[in-house]
Amino acid sequence: MSTLIVAALALGACTSTSYAQTQELAPAVPGEFIIKYKDGHSPAQLEAAASSELQTPSLLQRIRTMFGAESPMQSELNSLKALESKYDLQSVSALETYDQPGAEALFNETYIYKYNTDVNTTDVMRDYENIDGVEYIEPNYIYTAFKAPNDPNYNSLWGMKIIKAEEAWEISTGAQTVKVGVVDTGIEVNHPDLKANTLKSEGMGPGCPNNTDTGNHGSHVAGTIGAVGNNTTGVAGVNWAVSMNGYAVLCAGGSGSLASIAAGVNKAVADGNKVINMSLGGSSDSTTFHNAIINAKNSGVTVVVAAGNCWNQPQSQKCPLSNPTQRGSSDYTYPAAYPEVITTAATTSSDQSASFSNRGRANDIAAPGVQIESTWPPSTYQSISGTSMASPHVAGAAGLLLSVNPNLTPDQVQNALQCTADDLGAAGWDEVFGHGRLNLKKAIDAVQSGNIPTCSTPGQPPSTPLPTNPGGATNTPAPTGGQQVHPCPEEAAKGNYNCTTPTDDNDYKAWEAEFKQGVSSLSPWFEYIRKAIYN
Known about the structure:
- It is a single chain.
- This protein is α/β, with parallel strands linked by helices and 535 residues long.
- 31% of the residues lie in helices and 17% in strands.
- The longest helix has 18 residues.
C-alpha cells in the first residue's frame, strides 16, 4: 500500500501554504502529473486567445506592441511553454470523462502531463503553482489493492451466513438488470463461476489487458459480489444474478496510477453501473480522485470502498484509532476518507474487529473480511483476508437492494445498509465498526417495506455537490431535518465560522463541535479547510 505522511499543521498556520509545501510526496508514476487549468487558461485556450488578439489588436495591445510588452495572456502562455521545455514534456492528454456532463464540469481543462521521468516532482509542482491560471497540480499518484496473505485451507462461506444472506435470498437473489462496476485488477471473465454474471473487463491502465485478471484481486472481489449461485459450482456471491463490469486499473503488482483509477471510475459511471466497488487506496488525498467520486454519486451511483489495512501492526494488537482532527494525516486512507463513499471495515467470524482493519471517523459499516473464500483466476478458488474482502460484501448488498427497488438513491442505499446493521462494540456508531456489521436481511426488509431509516456518521463532513457550471462555484445543500442553517454562511465560507472575529482556532472548534453533534453540514467550510491544508 502506498503511504503518504502529511505535515500536521495548525489550522491558523496553513491558510496561505501551497500544496507542495504541506504534503510529502507519496509514490507516483515518475514524471507524470494531473494539471487542471482555470477556465480560459489552458495552453490551447491561451494560444487561441492570443492569436485572436494579434489578428484584431485592441488599442491597449497596439500600445503594448509599440513598447515591446507582452499581453498577460501571452506572458502566461510563454511561462507554460517555458516549463514544458524546462522539464522536457513528452506528451499531454485530456483526462477522459466519457461524455458525462457531470464529469465534464468537474474535469474541464484537466490534463495528464508526462515529463521526463527524472524530473524533480516538488520543483515541477512549485513552478506550476506559481502560475495563476493553474487551478491545481498533483502527481499521478499510485494506489494499491488491499489484500492479505492467502490461506487456501479455509473453505467456508461464513460471511454469507453471518450477514443473514440466506434469509435475504428468500426475497431476492439479484437481477441481471443491476450493473456493478469493479474498479480493481480486472475480472477473469471466463471463470466458470463468473462468466454468466460478467459483461466485460476493460483494461484502463498501461499494460492492463481486457477480459482477464493478471492480479487475481479483482476476480476475488467480483466473486463475493456476484459469483453465480445455485449452479453446483464453487461459491455463491451476494448476488446470484447480476451484471458486473471490470475496470483493470491496478496492473503493476497490484498498483495503479491516479489517472487510470479516475478514468476507471468515470468509465464505470458512463457504462451505467449503479454500484462501484473499490477495494484499493492510498494515503494521498487527490482532488482528481475526489472529483471522480463526486461525479459518480451525483450520477446516482453508490460507491463502496475498503477502509484499508494496517498490516504493520502485530497480530496481538489492534490498529490504532486515527486522529479525528487531522484528516489528511497518514492515519487516513483515500478514497475511504471521502464523505461520498460507504467505507467498510473488516470483521472476523466471531464478530470481532479484524486485527488489520483501519479505524477512524471515516468508517460507515463493517462486514466479513477474514479468510473469505471466493473466485480466483483462471478457474479456481482461494481464501484471503483484508478490508478488500469486506467491501464487496457491502457492494454486493447494495446491488441486491437495487434488484428489489432500482429507483433507490445512493443515500437511500447507504441508509438501508448502515442503519440496519447489527451494532457491535460501543453502543451506536463507533470508529471501529461504524454503524455495525452488515445485516442483509434487515436491509432488504427495510427496502421492501419502503421504511428506510436514516442515520449519519458523526463527524463525517458533507458530500460535495456537483458544480452548476464548469469551473463554477458549488451549491450548498439545502438544510434538512436535524441540520443547522448557519447565521453567517458567507463569512463561514471564508473561514470565519463563528461570525465574531477573523478566522482563528475558535472557528475550527465551533465547526468541529457541531459536526460531533451531527447538526452541521456546511459544505463551503469543509472546502475551505480542505483547500487551506492541501492546495
